Amino acid sequence: MSRVKSVLLVDFDNIYGATSEEVVSGLSNWLLWLEDGAFSAKNRRRRFIEKRVYWNLQFDKYRPDFERAGFSAFNCRALAKRKISAGKSSADIVLTMDAIEIALVNEEVEEFVILTTDSDFVPVVNRVQAGELRVVTCGKETDPTYDLFNQYADAVVHVAALKKAFSYERARRKWYQLRSPPPEIAPLTLLKERRSPLMGRVRAALATAEAPTDGPPAEVLRAVSIIKELGERMPDQPLSKTRIVRALSLIQEFSPTYQAGLRPWFGHKNFAAMIRRLSQIQPAIEVTTVGKNKIETIWREPAELPPPRARAPEPEARLELEAEPEVRLLPRERPSLALLAEAALQAELPDPAEEAEEEVAEEAADEAKEAEDAEAAGASSRA
């Protein structure tokens, strides 16, 4: 069986703080532990074609040890004074850029092993998985980072197992074996069962779901609800095929390969055809073609609904409104010139001659009255 071609990226500041200085003294042991198939699919051995370690200036004293083990060491000292005084580095952003660059440029890579317990690397895991690459991360089993990476990465190296690997030695191969047995992985230090809250809700939905009377099959609707749960955690971010397939594997009727009496991808041709079918049922699942038989799946939060429109009146009220005559102001019509001329002819207009005679009679009456008043005034003055 061929070895998995892998890339190892170590956030040393983080791993050193989560473990101890034995991460340096036991370097060759835990490297062999990983190469022998720890946390790999079907315990396949891996070959690291690239090994890089990122640290702050204070850890540069370990450079000779890591370079002897085949690592490329990067001193990622921070530039801001307040970060320098706090002992922080820029390893996160440098590691992120290197991971994306290697995933895009190096076509022979099959897997990334990113040793860090920092949850800020979840988007990096998603972007690397989008290229059909397997991603293994690290997590503390005593805090939520282990559960978080379990939801996104293909495998998680818990810190207790990594510490146990500081003293790892390869078991001897028996004469009838082609290879030595795979390395043992130490159990979790916590006794309680570790289950993702997301997967718990999915299992509850599977247990209580009922088959619909019509429309898409029940298992397809459950697949839509699972992708909805995945997308709502990171909206507008690509959902990798690996992550979607792992989540849909909880559905009994789902299989990515042909099995006895069970067609893959819910009876669709391939993964892309299945996702396009799910996007028809749930438009918030956005599917974009990025290559031959390759798609990008993104959950887009649906836009806010417009304000509700006024409700139509009830049938009885509608009948009452229709019974009442509707009063409308009609526009005023301007009469034509012919109608105005006809109305003027029919009207009884006064005669101009009669008006002149009336005016003369009124003036004569006024003059006679003035003469009488003057005569009366003269008589009174003589008296």
Task: Give an overview of the whole structure.
The protein has two domains: 4-191, Rossmann fold (3-Layer(aba) Sandwich), CATH 3.40.50; 198-299, no CATH class. The chain has 383 residues and is an alpha/beta fold. It contains 16 helices and nine strands. Helix 10 (197-208) runs antiparallel to helix 11. A six-stranded parallel sheet has the order 3-2-1-4-5-6. The protein has a three-stranded antiparallel sheet with strand order 7-9-8, sandwiched between helices. It has helices at 12-18, 22-25, 27-35, 63-68, 81-85, 91-105, 122-129, 145-152, 159-164, 197-208, 218-233, 241-248, 271-281, 315-323, 337-346, 352-382; strands at 4-11, 46-55, 72-75, 111-115, 134-139, 155-158, 238-239, 285-291, 294-299. The termini are far apart.
